[in-house]
Design brief:
Number of helices: 8
Helix content: 25-40%
CATH superfamily: Vaccinia Virus protein VP39
Number of strands: 10
Oligomer: single chain
CATH class: Alpha Beta
Structural class: alpha/beta
Distance between the termini: 25 Å
Radius of gyration: 18 Å
Shape: globular
Order of helices and strands: HEHEEHHEHEHEEHEHEE
Length: 277
C-alpha cells in the first residue's frame, strides 16, 4: 500500500468518526486539522502548522474549538462559503460552484501528485487555492486558474498572509493558453464532478494535449463519484471512463477523500489520476 493511500484512508476514517458526533448546518464549512503529528495520521508538525495557517488566514472561517476525535487531538474550524458560492455561479463557463475540499484532502491530493512524479500542478477552478497552496508546501511549482475575481483576491490575500507563494491566475479555463505556462511535466486538477464538468474537462484536455511539450507528459485528475445518479450517464471510471478513453489517457491511480459535499455521507469523493500516453 502506498503511503498516500494509507493517508487517504486515515483522513476518511477521521471524517467518519467526526460526523458521528457532529451535525453541521447547511452552508457551513467545517475543517478538521490535527494539532500534532500522529502515527494514525502521518503529517509532520511543520506541514500541519502550515495547514492551520491557511485556515486562520482565510476570512471564510469565523470560529474554532479543540476536540479529541478518534483519540487524535484536533482543531475544528467552522466557516461560511455562501457569498463565494453565489459569486462563483454568475459565470456562463462556471461548471461547478465553489465547494471546497477539506484541507487534509487537499494536502493528500498534492502529495499523491508529487509521489506520481509530476513537477508542476495546475488547479483548474481553484476556488480559494487550497490545492495549489498545499502543492507549494510540498515544493511543487503550482498554479490556480480561477474565473471568479473574488476568489482570486482571496487566494492572493491568503498567499500574502501565509507567505506561501503560488501563481493565482484569473482566467476562463476553457479559453486559457496553457502553453504560455511553459510546463514540462504538469498535472491538471479539473474541478467538476462528472455531472457538471465534462465540457470543462474536454476543453482543458484538448488544449493541453495540443501543446507539443505537454502532450506526452501531462496528467489529469478528475473528481469522480462512487454513486452514479443517472442511468444514462457514463458509469465507468467513476463517471469519467468515456473521457479517459476518448483522449487515450492512462489510469495511474485513484484515492477517495472527504469534500464539503460528502461531510454527511459514508462514501467520499473519488479522485482519479490519469496521464497522457
Amino acid at each position: 500500500m502506498r503511503i498516500d493511500d494509507s493517508l487517504a484512508e486515515a483522513v476518511a476514517l477521521l471524517k467518519n468518526q467526526f460526523v458521528r458526533g457532529y451535525k453541521s448546518r447547511i452552508g457551513l464549512l467545517t475543517e478538521i486539522v490535527p494539532l500534532y503529528y500522529s502515527k494514525s495520521l502521518p503529517i509532520g508538525n511543520n506541514m500541519l502548522d502550515s495547514l492551520h495557517r491557511f485556515v486562520t488566514s482565510n476570512p471564510m472561517y469565523f470560529r474554532s474549538h479543540d476536540a479529541a476525535i478518534y483519540g487524535l487531538k484536533c482543531r475544528i474550524y467552522e466557516g461560511d462559503i455562501n457569498n463565494y458560492w453565489l459569486s462563483s455561479k454568475k459565470y456562463d463557463t462556471s461548471y461547478q460552484p465553489f465547494y471546497p475540499t477539506w484541507m487534509l484532502s487537499a494536502y493528500t491530493l498534492a502529495l499523491e501528485a508529487k509521489s506520481l512524479g509530476f513537477d508542476q500542478l495546475v488547479d483548474v477552478g481553484s476556488g480559494d487555492g487550497r490545492i495549489a497552496y498545499c502543492a507549494s508546501l510540498l515544493g511543487i511549482e503550482s498554479y490556480g486558474i480561477e474565473i471568479d475575481e473574488e476568489l482570486v483576491e482571496l487566494q492572493n490575500a491568503v498567499s500574502s498572509s501565509t507567505g506561501i507563494k503560488y501563481n493565482a491566475i484569473r482566467a476562463d479555463a476553457t479559453r486559457f493558453d496553457y502553453g504560455s505556462l511553459e510546463l514540462s511535466k504538469p498535472i491538471f486538477f479539473i474541478s467538476g464532478l462528472p455531472e457538471m464538468g465534462e465540457m470543462l474537462a474536454n476543453s482543458v484536455i484538448r488544449q493541453v494535449l495540443s501543446v507539443e511539450k505537454m502532450k506526452h507528459n501531462a496528467g489529469f485528475n478528475f473528481m469522480g463519484s462512487h454513486v452514479m445518479k443517472s442511468l444514462t450517464r457514463d458509469r465507468t471510471g467513476w463517471g469519467w471512463g468515456n473521457i479517459i478513453a476518448s483522449f487515450g489517457l492512462k489510469l495511474i491511480g485513484t484515492i477517495t477523500l472527504p469534500t464539503l459535499w460528502t461531510t454527511d455521507q459514508i462514501l467520499d469523493t473519488a479522485y482519479v489520476y490519469t496521464s497522457a500516453c
